[in-house]
Amino acid sequence: MRILRAGDHKRMPWKNGKGETVEIAVFPPDASINDFDWRISMATVAEDGPFSIFPGIDRTLAILDGNGMVLDVEGSSPVLLTTASDPLAFPADIPVAARLEDGAITDLNVMTRRDGLAHTLIRIDVDGSKTVPLSPATCLLLCHRGALSFRRDGETGALAAGDALLVEATTATALEIDGEARCYLASITTG
Fold first, then answer.
1. What is the pLDDT of residue 17?
2. Taking the alpha carbons of 31, 115, 77, 182 in that order, is the dihedral positive or negative?
3. What is the pLDDT of residues 105-118, one digit of tens each?
4. Which of 48, 88, 93, 175 sees the fewest Cβ atoms within 10 Å?
5. DSSP 100-145
6. Rounded to two decimals, what is the model's pTM?
7. What SS3 class is residue 7?
8. Which carries the bigger pLDDT value, residue 48 or residue 173?
9. What is the CATH number of domain 118-190?
10. 9-114: which CATH number, 3.40.50.1000, 3.30.70.260, 3.40.630.30, 2.60.120.10?
C-alpha cells in the first residue's frame, strides 16, 4: 500500500491542449499520455468542447465538483452527469463532446488499455465505519472530500481530501475505513 498525497500529484496539459489534468497515478510509473497501461487523473473542464481521443483505451468518468456536464458519446444518447450520477464508462477512442450545464466542473477519469486490462469505478460515501471489499486487482481509493483513516492487514494510515491510497496486486481482502468522506474506488484487473 502506498499513500499518494494531493500535493504530489503531477499537473500536465490535456492531450488536446485545451486544459490541464492532475495525474494521480499511472502505470508504468513513468508512462506518458500516449503509452500508459492505466491512468487515473482529475481535470477541470471550463468550456464546452471535444474530449481527447485515446486509441485502444476504455474510460470511466465521474463528476467530482460543479453543476454537471452533458456528454455526447458517438452512437449513444447524450447523458447528463452530475455529482450524484454513477460514473459513466465509454470508449476513449470515439468522438465525445462535452457541454457544461452551468459553469466549470472537475471530473475523475480512469483509463485502461483495452488490450489486456479492464477497470471499474464506484463512489463510496463514508460516515463512521465502513468495510470496503478489495478485488484481487490494483486498487486506488481517492478521498475526494473529508478525511478518513484506514486499516488493512495490520497497516494503517490516513487520507485527507485529494489524497489517494494505491494498493497494488492485492489479494482479495477488505479495507476498513473510519471517518466522514466522499471517496472513489478504482479497480484495475487483467483480462
1. 63
2. negative
3. 999 999 999 999 99
4. 48
5. ESSS-EEEEEEEEETTTEEEEEEEEEEEEEEEEEE-SSEEEEEEEE
6. 0.93
7. helix
8. 48
9. 2.60.120.10
10. 2.60.120.10
